[in-house]
Write a structure and sequence with these properties.
heterodimer; A: 333 residues; mainly alpha; Ammonium transporter fold; 2 strands; B: 207 residues; 67% helix
Amino acid sequence: MNSNTENKFLTMTASPHIKSPIKTRNIMADVVIALMPALVWAIYVFGFRALTITAISVVSCVAFEYLYRKLMKKSNTISDLSAVVTGILLAYSLPVSTPLWIPIIGSFFAIVIVKQLYGGIGKNIINPALAARVFLFVAYPTELTAFTEPGKYLSPFAVNVSKAASDITAGATPLVDLKNGIIPDADITSTLIGNIPGTIGEVSATILILTGIYLMIRKVITWHIPVTYIATVALITLVLPLGNAGGVSFMLLQLFSGGLMLGAFFMATDYVTSPATSVGRIIYGVGCGLITVFIRYFGGYPEGVSFAILIMNLFVWYLDKATKPKAFGGAKK
Amino acid sequence: MSENKFSVKKHFFSSLFDQNPILVQLLGTCPTLAVSTTVVNGIGMGLSATAVLVLSNLLISLLRKFIPKQVRIAAYIVIISGFVTAVELLIKAFLPSLDKSLGLFIPLIVVNCIILARAEAFASKNGPVVSMIDGLFMGVGFTFALGILGLIREVLGSGSVLGYTIPGFKPILFFALPAGAFLTLGCLIAAVNYILALSKNKKGGSK
């Protein structure tokens, strides 16, 4: 039950009577705070268009959530801030040259089809922001693979950025080179700090790690999923590199380019669509890592993070069931 | 649906809506998902299946007293495949472009579950005239669902209606792909169920 649907007159429950102060809203607020530094970095690298896209995405997510709940005569859930988080994550997975109407379509897909049609927060089986990203990626492949060189600012308010603009480099993220087994030109330092082409939120790898650690300290997320996810990718790319590129630099570039950090810290750890037990989380993280590397190595797309997390989302129910801890004093099987 | 109380009008609406072969009974989803990329494909597929459905229902109904119970399914399939071959050759001869876009899915009408289901559930128990009417209505229901699905997917996925491009609309490629077919069909089924539940509640019937 949602906290805001509780009936205040019917609180005659059995003990314990002390209620946890942790509410969905507090958790989501922490996630929003943790996501802000990456936005500041995105504005520095890509210009204020990054802010425009994020704002449009957040506003339309909240608006669709409000309208749907209103039209269906259900309790309003926009105050739990989960739609805000979805909006930010959706915008973070779009390139900065995206036409301004695309985040609105993505928000509709995320909120109405993926989240609300399944019953709203807590009942969706896959992560709304990721599902919307994949939907947009399949629906508008050209728009979503046009990446901008860092430092070349696009107009913040132009609805469409013209394709001919010389400052858009189509699909030249380091991952494309890595897929072909070549070490790209981008040096590791600029990849680490995020001075590379990519989507709005994924480039700033260092900032995402630091904010992810902040979330762990605040106990919003546990270490299991991010650590096992990133470690799995690191191990495979170190031991089994692609082509002749090999070595530590190949591994580091695999880790820090693309959406791995954003996915591992902020998307795979979504409460609703990740396992509830520690063992389940470890299996889930390893699974995400394996699928990500497999798609990056053998798949049709250079990036596999979003597909990997969505596929593992579908296993969460089984993982929870398989790793359910025995009740204290319960009978041995 | 007993023989002596066969109401044509009631049967027509039930096969269009609350007994719609695709949207309610979920039969024949394979051709539905595969060929519903455009309105023309959807309706072409629907009409070919309707022709087979009417004729096979008629013949099976006429032969229902002679077909031994033990081999009835095999007998039905032989009859159906005969008509499918005829329809396939006719389409190849007169509508080569439709044949090209539907391709393999015309011969696959043989294993379309709607046709076998109507043969088993209706034609084998009823007289030839009502069986033909049943085949026609079920076929219309199938064509109706395919046409709507094709329309939605053509507008969203290719940005056109009946081949005419809608100006100023950027097609969402997703809906022209198989994943879009599943999503559209799912939403359509949900919408039909919702409307049917509403109309049942209004009539005061059971939920």
